[in-house]
Write a structure and sequence with these properties.
CATH class of one domain: Mainly Beta
CATH superfamily of one domain: YVTN repeat-like/Quinoprotein amine dehydrogenase
Strand order of the largest sheet: 1-31-30-29-28
CATH topology of one domain: Methylamine Dehydrogenase, Chain H
Radius of gyration: 19 Å
Helix content: under 10%
Oligomer: single chain
Structural class: mainly beta
Largest sheet: 5 strands, mixed
Number of helices: 1
Shape: globular
Length: about 350
Amino acid sequence: MGKLQSKIRNRSSKYRTEEENLPAKTILQYSPAHSDAVASVASLPPDLCLSGGKDKVVVVYNWRYGTVVRRFLGHKREVTKVTGLPHSNWLFSASRDKTVLRWELNGPSGPVHCFSGHDLVVTGLAASPAFQQLCTGSRDNTVCMWDIETGNCLQRAAISRNLVTHLCWIPDEPYVIQTSEDKTVRIWDTRELQVAHSFPAKQHIQTSCDVSPDGQYCVSCSSGFGGEGCEATLWDLRQTKSSVYELRGHIQTTMSCIFLPKGLTTFPAIATSSQDGTIKMWSQETGDCLTTTFLDTAGPLTSLSACETGSLLCASSNSGIHLLRVNSTKALELQEVANF
């Protein structure tokens, strides 16, 4: 199994570091990307992001200058997940209308392909540049593999009670990680679309997952309330019998979890966001919570994405998308610099 076994209209803003005796930095307020709750956000290097939400719109936004680059219309119901294919012009969005649409960043205003085949809302979306394939998952208990160029469904697999919540591809490997409402984290071998491994079931619904850039670790996160559940769990993909450790501190459902790139921190770290309105940053090596940031007007925080330039994007239910940066001069304080 390869690595599984071995392994902003204000153009003058430059994010200058504030001296401690100066007033707190103003959070730049840009034109909103969406008119309603944002469900998913994904970084598009170097300074764009892709997002979708309850307003049914897919938006490409320049977070450095605060401008809408593209606005795509085509879904009949709210957008649940978005992703881009790295090093390409292709963008993807999943929706409660049971479809996935492919868009071109520099192409027509309408969708290029419609991936139709799920019976219920599509809740998982992952694209692989190495294999030119798209993997989708749904509350209909199925996972599907698609040819990106043609839109043809290549394979389909169903597991009873496997209500998919998220999908992520292991870099350069034919494996996909999947979380589910049945509290299980699964590894799919996409060549035959069979489950290669299932981690020990958790106590709560697994809401999201991510894979480390080196393909050696996976992190998943849990539903919960009042501090019961709400954790993120680190898994070693090379030794799949048990978890490495749990990251506890959120008091409501943890909605998103991601590994942070070296451009954002100088050491391996994980970020999580929660319905409790907080973003937490954790040491990947020790599991210690390094910093907690509360976005008091944001409501539930639905999705995280890290930018290669060292910024963090966070989608919210009440206040759009938030742009944050790590201030290493203040004990790794995570500071909000813009909101759109």
